[in-house]
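Please check our next protein.
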Amino acid sequence: MPRPRRTQISIEDTPWYHAVSRCVRKAWLTGVDPNTGQSYEHRREWVESQLLKLGDIFAIDIAAYTVMSNHLHLVLRIDIELANNWTDREVVEQWHQLFKGTDLTQRFAKGELVEEVNLTPLRHSIAQYRSRLSDISC
């Protein structure tokens, strides 16, 4: 019986993981669908570029990958030390490369002063972003 990914990850045991993502309902990711003859090969370069882009944003190294016709394999290394060494501003900047964030994190990223009443919510957001940027189970 499959288990949720979050129950299979243990940084204390190893930072290395093999992940597989499959298409469903006989869908094709790349290559030529033998049933319809339609080519999806144009997606391969896009998938690879997205993987490499995400590898630059997250504190997760992509050690190896392969994009197959209906699935892909990744060998990942979680770099928890990198994530922990990022400054708060770097965490927010990394997060904002993919997500809008909050008005508060947007102002913080611009270098605007944060009122004392907003420091706790800001720190909470930064801690959450830092955790998610080094977590493959999310």
Notes: The two ends are 20 Å apart (CA to CA). Strands lie at 16-22, 60-67, 71-78. The chain has a mean pLDDT of 92.
